[in-house]
Amino acid sequence: MLSSNTEDYLKAIYELLEDSGRVTTSALAERLTVAPASVTEMVQKLARMQPALVDYERHRGVALTEAGRKIALEVIRHHRLIELYLAEALGYGWHEVHAEAERLEHVISEEFEDKIAAVLGQPAHDPHGDPIPTREGEVAEPCRRALSQVTAGETVRVARVRDEDPAFLTHLTELGLVLRAPLRVTRAPEGGPLSVEVAGSTRELERAITDHVFVEAVGV
Fold first, then answer.
1. With 90 as the cut, is the pLDDT of residue 59 above it?
2. What pLDDT does residue 114 have?
3. 3-class SS at 167?
4. Does 52 have pLDDT greater than 90?
5. How far is residue 166's CA from residue 28's CA, in Å, rounded to a whole number?
6. What CATH number has the domain spanning 147-217?
7. Is 81 in contact with 104 (CB distance < 8 Å)?
8. HEC states along 39-76?
9. Smallest Cα–Cα separation from 75: which of 45, 51, 107, 50?
C-alpha cells in the first residue's frame, strides 16, 4: 500500500509530463505547493523504491517509470470516475467535483471503482472532458487544440477544459462555454481577444480563457 502523498506525487508528475519529457523539481514543488527541498527528497525516495517509481537525475528532473505510470493512471482513473459519478448521480456542478474527488481518490477500492464504471456505462471522459484511463492502464489522447488557435469563421464545440479552479469553471458556465457547447469564432485578431458566438450571444474572450478551453470539430 502506498501513501496518499506518494500517489499525489505520481499523479502530479504524470499530469506535468503531458507538456514535457521530464518534470523539474521546481515545477513539481509549485504544483504540490511544497518546498523544493522536500520535492527533491521525495523523488529520490521514489527512485530508490523496488521497483523504482520514478527516474530522477539532478539538473534533468524526473520522469515516471512504467511502474510509477501504472500507479498514476490508477489514481487518475479513480479521480475522474468519482468526478463523473458526483456529477451524473449526485447532481454536483462541474466546478464542485474536483475537490471532492481529490479527497476520495485514495480510499476507494478496486471493486468500488469497477461498480462506479459499470453504473456509468464504462465512460470515456470525465465532466471536464479529460479521458478516463481504462482498468488496464490505457488512456486516450486528450483534446489539445485550444480555443485561442481557432481561426475566424470556424465552428467548433467545447471538448475539454482545465478543471482545477472552481471560479474559472463557474465563469465558463456563465459564458455558456460548457462541455459540448457549439460555438463560432467570428473574429480572431492576432494576440487579441476572440469574438465568439455561443449560446445565442457574442462574447469577447481573452487569452486567459481561450488558452484553457479546448475544442474539436463539430460532428466528431
1. no
2. 95
3. helix
4. yes
5. 21
6. 2.30.30.90
7. no
8. HHHHHHHHHHCCCCCEEEECCCEEEECHHHHHHHHHHH
9. 107
Residue 138, phi then psi, degrees to nearest 5? -95, 145
Rg, C-alpha atoms of the chain: 19
Domain 4-64 top-level CATH class: mainly alpha
CA distances from 79 to 24, 75, 146, 149 (A): 24, 6, 24, 29
Nearest to 1 by CA among 106, 111, 137, 82: 106
pLDDT on residue 102: 94
Domain ranges in the chain?
Answer: 4-64, 147-217
Over residues 26-45, mean pLDDT: 96
Asked whether the predicted pLDDT for residue 20 surpasses 80, the reply is: no
Residue 201 forms beta bridges with which residues? 198
The confidence score (pLDDT) of residue 18 equals 75
Q: What is the mean pLDDT of the chain?
A: 94
